[in-house]
Amino acid sequence: MENKVKLEVVGLTAGHSNSGSYTLILGENKSQIKLPIVIGAYEAQTIAFELEGIKPSRPMTHDLFKSFAEAFKIKLDEVYISNLDEGVFYSQLIFSMNGSPLHIDARTSDAISLALRFKCPIYIKKTILEDAGIVIEDMNSDAPARANEDLQPKSAKPVKDNFNNLSLKELNELLEEAIKEEDYDKAALIRDEITKRNMS
Question: What torsion, rounded to 10 degrees, do the Cα atoms 72, 77, 79, 80 define?
Fold first, then answer.
């Protein structure tokens, strides 16, 4: 258990940099280290519905999956964010079926949406949080997560996605600026570039 850290959903915001993108923010309870994950509009909507307690008139895909699993007595025990490769987070759904654990690969946005529906814990490999987490000092981790009410992306601002000409010092300064502006999807791109350079 010491190699993994429990996370909670602490925010969901419309993206600043990429039209149609949203940033899901995960964090450890009472910690300033947050994990921004850029997700699509549909995934953001399914997460927002669950966070806000909105029940659509017809079941969404994740609701259908939960109903199916429960009908066959399959229980989702936890979600585990197990890997980060070239800016992509990899997750596992860990189920109990007939008393045996079953691990299924999943997109992290889908895994989080299911974790919220099954009310199961979300864990991350400790080294991934250490490498990919960013410090956000002004976000109150005690406040309940609130979804963006209209779920409409903010107007897109161009993001510099080619950081080859910047030094690590310049990248870190750019990262701090993106965090101050609450541009978490840009911060995630910069963080990924810093991580890539530190690994090479």
Answer: -130
